[in-house]
Amino acid sequence: MPELRDLYQEVILEHSKAPRNYKALESANYKAEGYNPLCGDRFTVYLEMDADKIREIGFQGAGCAISKASASMMTQSVKGKTKEEAEKIFHRFHDLVTGHGQGEDAELGKLAVFSGVSEFPMRVKCATLAWHTLEAALEGKQEKVSTE
Amino acid sequence: MSAAAAVPIRGKAANRSFDVERIRKDFPILQTKVHGHPLVYLDNAATSQKPRAVIDALVRYYEGENANIHRGVHYLSQIATEEFEKARETVRAFVNAARASEIIFTRGTTEALNLVAQTYGKTNVGAGDEVLITAMEHHSNIVPWQMLCAEKGAKLRVAPMNDEGELLLAKYEKLLGPKTKLVAVGHVSNALGTINPLKQMIAAAHAKGAVVVVDGAQAVPHLKVDVQDLDADFYAFSGHKMYGPTGIGVLYGKQALLEAMPPYQGGGDMISSVTFEKTTYNKVPHKFEAGTPDMAGVAGLMAAIDYMNGIGIEKIAAHEHELLEYATEVIGAIEGVRLIGTAREKAGVLSFVLDEVHPHDIGTILDQQGIAVRTGHHCAQPVMERFSIPATVRASFAMYNTKGEIDALALGIRKVREVFA
After folding, report:
1. Closest to A39 (Cβ–Cβ): which among B356, B357, B391?
2. Beta carbons of B96 and B4 less than 8 angstroms apart
3. Residues in A touching B380 (Cβ below 8 Å)
4. What tens digit of pLDDT does each residue of B170-191 get?
């Protein structure tokens, strides 16, 4: 039986209550909006790109603890990374939360706390909403991203 | 049945013979364990569970009666046709329609509402006309009218509600005017539980010459509905929210209106003669029932109505009202809980939010304790917007729920608070 504490780890709860980089970036040259119509979660991700590199990242919006913590920790993990590196992290993260990962993934670092999500398939969309939004912002897409 | 009742029946004295433990034994799924806990099913406004009698009716239909109706001259076809029309009569009596021919079988409430929009609506609503709905409608009672208005160049107007989730009747009446061709209103709000003052609303609409379509999906499981007493022109509901199977629903319509309306879909059973030059349509209600219907579903719906009648709708309503009062008190007393929808007249639904905890997180934590609630916008996004919240947690009750289950819900919410402490 999946345990609640596997999902709601202390780090996740802490990030959901005090999200990092929770701001609209004045300097953003890319942004995208993500929406999960199932639960109403809605985030905007702001990027300040320096050529191919994420120099600055911020997000704003409203959502459940999982989606908010995921967005917060995402901003920390991709800041300073190139577009390609960020996309690679997303793919690894996606494998982790959907249970397709190959066990321990050292490169994910702190993001490993989201491994419990794979036991709660209904919550995968919560954990990946900000990431899908990031991907859209990196692609320079203007339309709204939906996880449905 | 009394003709006057469209309100929940109060009082505990009448309910001495209501044995909830015996009723629970009639619902096989209630024995289910979820994550090691007994299932506490509080998502009845989404769909109710089915008693053995309904499940058996589906099996009995396929094992002993299956044949196409209104067609064959053989034995089984005759049996199936008789059962089908008997079910129509059962539904007629259930909502006290004047004639069985005023009962049309549909796939559910949504299809019934779309049927009215696409037939009555398309022929009677024109450019510059108005369709009036309320601020607490389900998407199913918004979108068909939006589509109709967009197509016809008509205007959709919305009657507002107060902070308790009650319709502002005076404002509603003010919005009714010579341009109002149609009013579409939910009898009971699925997101808030509010019972609308339907009789008054219908009388006011009729005084201005508007026809009234009622979304009764959340009302029929909880209240005695009398379409003649209400003077509703159309009344739509679903089988699956009132202990019946999925995929079957009902549209009641006044005979004269139905006769004047064009058909909804073309096909078999809805015609009386077809040549390549001209088709003559069948009589009401068959005109609106093109194709082979969900005959097993109709058998199951009849079994559900028989089951409810066997217990007594007044008794069911009294039990559920007691549950709702108890839940309002117990859940409302939990620190951080804010109830959404506190109308004086309510049925079956307790919607709430909890401090800073998102409903989706609450839903997952409750689920871990075997408690099924709905979390989200409940297909009523404008209602969420009205209360400036993205979503709520909704506990909704049926005849088989107990006070013990409400205690379990209260305990579950306290657990949520612990996790997020």
Report:
1. B391
2. no
3. none
4. 999 999 999 999 999 999 999 9
| Residue A146 in domain | no
Domains and CATH numbers, chain B: 13-50+312-419 (3.90.1150.10), 55-309 (3.40.640.10)
Q: How confident is the model at residue B162 (pLDDT cuts 50, 70, 90)?
A: very high
Q: Enumerate chain A positions whose Cβ falls within 8 A of a Cβ in B.
A: 1-2, 4, 7-8, 13, 17, 38-42, 62-66, 120, 122-123, 126
Please check whether residue A100 lies inside any domain of the structure. yes
What is d(CA B235, CA B228) in angstroms, rounded to the nearest whole number?
A: 11
List the alpha helices (DSSP H) in A2-145: 4-7, 10-17, 65-78, 83-98, 124-139
Q: Which of A1, A64, A117 to mutate to test the interface with B (most CBs of B within 10 A)?
A: A64
CATH, residue A93: 3.90.1010.10
CA nearest neighbour of B91 among B202, B253, B271, B321? B253
Other Cβ atoms closer than 10 A to B73: 6
**Chain A residue at shortest CA distance from B359:** A64
- What is the domain range of residue A98? 4-140
Provide the token pair at B135: 């601020």
Known catalytic residues of B are 379
pLDDT 10s digits, A26-50: 999 999 999 988 777 899 999 999 9
- Give residue B237's pLDDT band: very low, low, confident or very high (50, 70, 90): very high
- Where on the phi/psi map is residue A103: left (φ > 0), alpha (ψ -120 to 50), or beta? left
Q: Evaluate if residue A76 carries a pLDDT over 60.
A: yes
pLDDT, one tens digit per residue, over B322-363 is 999 999 999 999 999 999 999 999 999 999 999 889 999 999
Q: For residue A3, what pLDDT is reported?
A: 80
| Chain-chain contact of A122 with B364 (C-beta, under 8 angstroms) | yes
